[in-house]
Amino acid sequence: MLKVLAKFSRYSIGRTESIRGHPVEKEAFYSFMKKIPKAEIHLHIEAVPTLKAIKKLYKKRFNKTMTKADQEKLFSYNDLNGFIQAFLQVQDLYQSVDDFDYIFADFADYLVENNINYCEAFFAPSAFLKKGFAYKDIVANFDKNIEKIKKEKDITIKILVDVSRTFGCENAMKNYNLIKEFPCKHVLGIGLGGAEQKGPAKDFESVFTQAHKDGFHAVAHAGEDVGPESIWDSINYLHAERIGHGITSIQDSKLIDYLKETQLPVEVCPTSNVFTKKIVDKIENHPIRALYDDGVHVTVNTDDPVFFKVTLLDEYWNLHSKLNFSMDEIKQLVINSYNSSFLSEKDKEKYIKKVEESWKKAEA
Question: Model-level pTM?
């Protein structure tokens, strides 16, 4: 394996050799990276079920089989707002709290297949609460499934509740109050997701101020399809501990300097940004390369695997093969995700040590 990896460099792109129809570099890369434990810290839990599970939920919801046309319609979108509408439609397929078992079964498979041993995932309760689900029943189901995955797979999952800018500040505060009313050891804090253009971060200052006061962690999607001013607002009004996406920071040199100086983590989701098309038209033009080179503390994530047909392994491969990230840089990105997590410093050291040991063993 070491001899194969020796071919990997930022100058190795474009080779034509193949093994069973696959590029040598890609096959070797995936084989190597599957051996490396990873963390993922920007992933929406409702977006991990397989198409098979979605079809089951569709049949249960509408009492008919999901056709190919139905499938194409559901997964057809060309901007962030279109994606959000598709996301809400998938959420609408759930008819009972027990349906979350479908999520966690596929979630466990996804984590195992990508060798992710620690994950901080978003969950947006608003649509489910509007359908009449009880929050206490939801977190009870989550607790059951997360404990099962920990016991059977030795994988740790933590939840960030997306209070959602889509439904306004009053609804966001209601969501936050539910976190306090029904505490769950797996819930770390809150996040602000949803339609960025329709919900400026500063409108949610009161929710985040209370969350910080109560000792919860708080993160925010910003700079996904709105300019750097959205990121500044998430910093100045929400005091976000991480920035989700954050790619429009590349438009503001002062913001880049701030991010570099503070090492405020940025949760980059390359393929997602290409699908929503507002800032990035193709992976080769993604600003993660420039952000990394400028010293910004970036992490790599999938955002919504089923919607964007991507895995964490795919994301790392795209960075290596299309954005010239060297293997040493890939390794640093893996470590960045643990360092950007809300793990204790002691646990971060433990997880990163496993990365170092696995990397060394895979190279042998």
Answer: 0.90
Q: Please list the residues that pair with 243 across neighbouring strands.
A: 220, 266
Residue 320 burial (10 A CB sphere; 0-12, 13-18, 19+) = buried
Helix H or strand E encompassing 163: none
99 vs 89, 113, 144, CA distance in Å? 15, 22, 13
Residue length, the chain?
Answer: 364
Distance of CA 262 to the CA centre of its chain: 22
pLDDT for 276 = 79
pLDDT tens sequence across 283-322: 999 999 999 999 999 999 999 998 889 999 999 999 999 9
Tokens representing residue 172 in the block:
């966001």
Helices (H), the chain: 2-5, 24-33, 51-62, 68-74, 80-92, 100-113, 126-130, 135-153, 169-181, 205-213, 228-236, 253-262, 270-276, 288-293, 305-308, 312-322, 327-340, 345-363
Q: Which two tokens stand for residue 175?
A: 């969501």
CA distance 101 to 60: 14
**Cβ 354 vs Cβ 343: under 8 Å:** no
Are residues 73 and 58 in contact, defined by beta-carbon separation less than 8 angstroms?
no
Structure tokens at 232: 């500044």
In degrees, to the nearest 5, what angle opens at C-alpha 12 toward C-alphas 7 and 16?
A: 95
